Amino acid sequence: MPHTSLAHQIRSDVINALAEDIGTGDLTAQLIAEHTQAHATVITREDMVLCGTLWLDECFLQLDPDCKIEWKFKEGDTVEAKQTLCEIRGHARALLSAERPALNFLQTLSAVATQTRRYVEEVSGTQAKVLDTRKTLPSLRIAQKHAVKVGGGHNQRIGLFDGVLIKENHIAAAGGIGKVMEHAFQITPPNVPIQIEVESLAELDEALLAGARLILLDNFSLADMRIAVTHAAKRAELEASGGITLKNIRRVAETGVDRISIGALTKDVKAIDLSMRISLP
């Protein structure tokens, strides 16, 4: 599907999340008198990079357009544990009904931003950029890629429609690296990136000979990465991928590769521990 604006995506994400949780109505919230007003605070129980504020806002505003939300920190801020992130004032029923979807967005997106920030800090001082992948939670790709950017990382293609990534199965089905690259150059629209994945130094040299300008080094050893950088000699951007962790990313960056893609930024995150407490004014 084509990329939509962030505001439109947020509205869509929240509509779906609220419908999933509330369905035909929040039975428990009906225990509260209809016009009761309430005050809520959202607190983090661990250190984090704040991300997802717009999604949280939208959750509460869709159920109570007149509610007031006051953020103590801004998107991208590093926040220490036990800090109040925001205060919310509005209809008690709306606050209770929106609580879980709102916190789900905030805890997940903050986790992605926090994880990304750790990886970015590890490669500080090198030329390597930290990039995400398409290994995202279903229906949350735009949100998670936003969180990667908030954490200081960079986005790759949103989906299959806005970039070409030629992998081993494409190469095999097309009859080899030379043939698949030739066909890619023929059919790919201008300004759409063409990347090819290689699994050996021999394949790297074949891709360079075929004119590849963006090459993914799949599960290369550190020694082979260094050789690959020498072989490419700036003729192509090199991206390392596979088996990269916080423990080894610095060594990967120091080989001289231009980009490092990490699926764990979006698929292996542990949600930030948040809580919301409600009181009457």
Structural topology:
Blueprint: H1 6-22, E1 37-44, E2 48-49, H2 53-63, E3 68-71, E4 78-79, E5 84-91, H3 92-122, E6 129-131, H4 141-150, E7 164-166, H5 168-174, H6 177-187, E8 194-198, H7 201-209, E9 214-218, H8 222-232, E10 237-241, H9 249-253, E11 259-261, H10 264-267, E12 274-279
Helix pairs in contact: 1-2, 1-3, 2-3, 3-4, 7-8
Tags for this model:
single chain, 281 residues, alpha/beta, Aldehyde Oxidoreductase, domain 3, TIM Barrel, 2 domains, six-stranded parallel beta sheet, four-stranded antiparallel beta sheet, 10 helices, 41% helix, elongated
Summarize the structure.
The chain is built from 10 helices and 12 strands. The protein has a 6-stranded parallel β-sheet with strand order 6-11-10-9-8-7. It has a 4-stranded antiparallel β-sheet with strand order 3-5-1-12, with helices on one face. Strands 2-4 form a two-stranded antiparallel ribbon.
CATH topology name of the largest domain:
TIM Barrel
Strand content: 15-25%
Q: For the terminal residues, how far apart are their CA atoms?
A: 45 Å
By helix and strand content, what is the structural category?
A: alpha/beta
CATH C-level name of the largest domain: Alpha Beta
Average pLDDT metric = 96
* Beta strands, count: 12
Number of self-contained structural domains: 2
C-alpha Rg (nearest Å)? 23 Å
Give the topology string: H per helix, E per strand.
HEEHEEEHEHEHHEHEHEHEHE
Large-scale geometry:
elongated
Low-confidence stretches: none
Mind describing the biggest β-sheet? Answer: 6 strands, parallel
Q: What's the CATH architecture name of the largest domain?
A: Alpha-Beta Barrel
Strand sequence of the main sheet, in spatial order?
6-11-10-9-8-7
Question: Helical segment tally?
Answer: 10
Binned, the helix content reads 40-55%
CATH-level-4 superfamily name of the largest domain: Aldolase class I
